[in-house]
Amino acid sequence: MAPVQQVVHAVGSAIAQQDGEALAEALQQIDLSNAALIAQLTAGRIDVRALSSSVLDRPYDEMLAEQLDSLVAIHCNDHVKAYSHQERACTKFHSVFEKDTSWSLPAMHRLDLLLRMAAVRADATLKKSAAGGGDITTKQEEAVRVLQKSFTICISDRAELKVSKKWGTLHVINNLFKIYFKLNKLTLCKNLIKAVDGPGFPKALNGEELMGRSFPMAQLVTYHYFVGRLSLLNSQFGVAEGHLSFAFRNCPAASEKNKRLILRYLVPVRLVLGVFASKELLTKYDLPQFVPLCHAVHRGDLRLFERQLDDYQHLFIRHGSYLLVERAKTIAYRNFFRRVYSLHPEGTTKLDVAMLKRCLDATGVNLDHDEIECVLANLIYKGYIKGYLSHQHGKLVVGKTNAFPDLKQVNAS
Question: What is the mean pLDDT of residues 115-137?
Fold first, then answer.
């Protein structure tokens, strides 16, 4: 049997048996790696629409024909046209999916993924050919509208949880997250998170099983990664650390690239929380830029911290973590002053600000008296130092015990 006929009959058989996994596998054959299929399609000897309609009912026949046309357009490097076909394939699928049960969720996931990838390629083509200026609607923005249809169908399903389409929502959300991050439209992520936190959403975001169902771990890892990054933007460091830790812990060991991507944000957020990654971990995942930074923050070495921040400034900016790394300087200050305090006799409660300035000067950090008081006031406010400032006498007054509380204790409170 010829490749095109194989695909059509595989799709027809999966639909007849309501086998979503088989339908997704059949659609997966429509790929650039299927040389025999492409050769047959580009030869122009087969009427794809007639063949599809002879085996499949509407709108599945139209969906499949659009999918095959999209592959031909990709092969011809016409990515804008390929996107248009892929969008129509998704739309045709939606017209039957919203009336159907959840059996075809795997097929929806496959089509949504192909839609997002087609939109990225189309935008790259449009960017190269763009002349002049002005804002244009990108194909990824158009894809958002189609993906939102998938989201609405899934999240509003009223079937019992065991067979609900809601189990397909997380995959759609992750695709939307990727587009929103790429287009820098992060405020649009809030409604997605709100839907997940809603009462009707399956409460299985840590891998739990409910009524015999659970979210695939790959989808959970992706979701927690993006929610972790969004939490960082809102300065919710403890929340971010929890989400990113889950993502790193459950990301497969073989996926080193993804684990390194997670660590780009997990390491600096832990720095802000006063938790330091080991040299072995950073070396394993090829993140040498964090080794001296962790050492600097831990030791309170402010000069080393500034030097490393300057050296890797462009890298941190490109990764979107510069401001986060910079915030770790607060912990470096705290650890510096703690080291100075440790050199005093036990029970000391008053530290001269002028003396602290001399210590900073000796390490090459030049701050005037008012700047030092401002740093100390910030540390006191955040709970990193227990005490108060006597501006009139130029003193930092701390408690006799636990003047520099454990960072875990402070962050927990």
Answer: 80
CATH architecture of 341-412: Orthogonal Bundle (1.10)
As a whole number, the mean pLDDT across the chain is: 91
The string of DSSP codes covering 83-152 is: HHHHHHHHHHHHHHHTTS-GGGHHHHHHHHHHHHHHHHHHHHHHHHH--S------HHHHHHHHHHHHHH
Those residues whose C-beta lies under 8 Å from the C-beta of residue 394, and which sit 6 or more positions away, are 352, 353, 354, 369
Structure tokens belonging to residue 148: 């939102």
Between 46 and 153, the higher pLDDT residue? 153
pLDDT category of residue 132 using cuts at 50, 70 and 90:
very low
Give the type of residue at 28.
Q
Q: What are the tokens at 311?
A: 């050296």
**What token pair was written down for 105?**
């969720």
Q: What share of the chain is helix, strand, coil (3-state, %, to 5)?
A: 70, 5, 30
The residues that bridge with 390 in the sheet, in sequence order, are 395
Task: Report the C-alpha gap between 123 and 280 in whole angstroms.
Answer: 40
Supply the pTM of this predicted model.
Answer: 0.89
Residue located via tokens 């998170």: 193
Rg for the chain, CA atoms, rounded: 28
What is the dihedral sign for C-alpha 224, 225, 231, 237? Answer: positive
Instruction: Read off the pLDDT of residues 361-404 as tens digits, 9 standing for 90 and up.
Output: 999 888 899 999 999 999 999 889 999 998 888 899 998 888 88
How many CB atoms lie under 10 A from the CB of residue 322?
17
